[in-house]
């Protein structure tokens, strides 16, 4: 998949820097608009959230302090089925999308009450158009018989779902290449040079030119953005993940902490740590994740763990995305978020359409996600 950048290669409409979930989704969306796109990616040594995430297409609770983020998330969730079908029809890869609802399991009554209050206030803010249900222990057990006896209950979000994140990444790469996209893994982009009519993107001694450039390099955006008059105040946030061996099917729905994959393995997670660029694992955090999973589903006590990893979330100071065109260098865009699975359909849809044509989405105010909010 590796290739060298072509010096002077200028018949490209857009160069996307970063071939993770965000860059690929934008690239696919630009291809939908008929554009010729090159992705330049640092390569396999890079830190990638896209290879280490939990695979949730998650709606409930997202945007509790930002109504536009809730709208964006729900829009993406609605567009996910068509996005997935297109990937599967074109590549033959079943990315295992299921969107039949999800559960946020609460261990204590206090936790359940707080969660219910948060979702109820979101419902109020969205004029009653915010579906969720509160399930006490009995109602939860009726839905998920394997639930542990000490679990207080859960909130149920009918719009939640999950997907196999690695198959998703693979399908997106294949779809991009099928449509004559070029994916270049020739080292990190080190310099982005504004030139007449576009940008010259340098990776080591190689370069190419295009009319537009989209910065979608995850944590790498922080150093690239200032080169085109943008700012990406991003920080890593580590999440550790545990995988347990395949077991008989017992969990129909994804939960915020535990999900059963299409293959039958159990994925457990949701730790959040501020440890810089360290993507290792620690016994204490993994033990906490495992203990919570066992309390939720006691049958997991007998199940063997098969692997674990740490991966770095790409976080802005308020946790919401940045979608911004450079005022100093029009044609340069910054796209970054911390829910790149959930938002993939929106990135390939309305966000790519905005980059292509300047057309703002109808469902949410794009200005909400301007990076300027961090400079006031
Ligand atoms: C533990 C964990 C669980 C998560 N769970 C979920 C979930 O359930 N649902 C959800 O929606 N999201 C989840 N996320 C978040 C999601 O994975 C990320 O939002 C998404 O992967 C970010 O994609 P990205 O393309 O922005 O970044 P990355 O995946 O980091 O990709 C960035 C890419 O840019 C490249 N790059 C970097 N610098 C340069 C450079 N200078 N030049 C060229 N290329 C460069 C890298 O090689 C990399 O391929 C989770 C994240 C973590 C860590």
Key terms:
3 domains; D-Amino Acid Oxidase, Chain A, domain 2; binds flavin-adenine dinucleotide; FAD/NAD(P)-binding domain; disordered N terminus; 376 residues; 28% helix
Helix proportion range:
25-40%
CATH topology of the largest domain: FAD/NAD(P)-binding domain
The CATH superfamily of the largest domain bears the name FAD/NAD(P)-binding domain
User: What is the count of structural domains?
Assistant: 3
Class by helix and strand content? Answer: alpha+beta
- Counting DSSP H or I runs of 4 or more residues, the number of helices is 8
Estimated share of beta-strand residues: 15-25%
Overall pLDDT, averaged? 95
Largest sheet: 8 strands, mixed
- In sequence order, what are the helices and strands, one letter per element? EHEEHEHEHEEHEEEEHEEEHEEEH
Bound molecules: flavin-adenine dinucleotide
């Amino acid at each position: 998949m590796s290739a060298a950048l072509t010096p002077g290669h200028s018949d490209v409409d857009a160069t996307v820097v970063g071939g993770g979930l965000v860059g690929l989704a934008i690239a696919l969306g630009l291809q939908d608009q008929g554009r010729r796109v090159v992705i330049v990616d640092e390569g396999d040594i890079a830190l990638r959230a896209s290879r280490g995430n939990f695979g949730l297409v998650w709606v409930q609770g997202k945007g509790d302090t930002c109504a536009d983020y809730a709208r964006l998330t729900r829009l993406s969730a609605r567009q996910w089925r068509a996005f997935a079908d297109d990937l599967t029809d074109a590549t033959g890869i079943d990315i295992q999308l299921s969107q039949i609802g999800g559960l946020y399991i609460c261990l204590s009554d206090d936790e359940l009450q707080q969660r219910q209050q948060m979702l109820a206030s979101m419902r109020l803010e969205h004029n009653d158009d915010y579906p969720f249900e509160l399930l006490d222990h009995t109602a939860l057990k009726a839905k998920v018989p394997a639930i542990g006896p000490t679990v207080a209950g859960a909130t149920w979000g009918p719009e939640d779902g999950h997907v196999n994140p690695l198959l998703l990444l693979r399908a997106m790469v294949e779809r991009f290449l099928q449509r004559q996209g070029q994916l270049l893994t020739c080292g990190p982009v080190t310099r982005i040079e504004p030139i007449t009519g576009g940008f010259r993107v340098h990776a080591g001694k190689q370069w190419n030119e295009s009319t537009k450039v989209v910065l979608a390099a995850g944590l790498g955006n922080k150093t690239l953005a200032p080169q085109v008059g943008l700012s990406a105040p991003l920080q890593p946030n580590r999440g550790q993940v545990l995988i347990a061996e395949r077991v008989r099917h017992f969990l129909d729905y994804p939960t915020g902490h535990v999900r059963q994959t299409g293959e039958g393995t159990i994925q457990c997670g949701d730790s959040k740590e501020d440890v810089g660029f360290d993507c290792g694992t620690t016994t204490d955090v993994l033990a906490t994740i495992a203990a919570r999973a066992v309390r939720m589903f006691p049958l997991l006590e007998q199940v063997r763990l098969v692997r674990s990893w740490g991966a770095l979330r790409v976080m802005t100071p308020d946790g919401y995305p940045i979608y911004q065109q450079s005022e100093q260098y029009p044609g340069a865009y910054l796209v970054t978020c911390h829910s790149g699975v959930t938002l993939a359909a929106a990135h390939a849809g309305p966000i790519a359409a905005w980059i292509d044509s300047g057309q703002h989405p109808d469902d949410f105010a794009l200005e909400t996600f301007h990076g300027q909010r961090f400079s006031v």
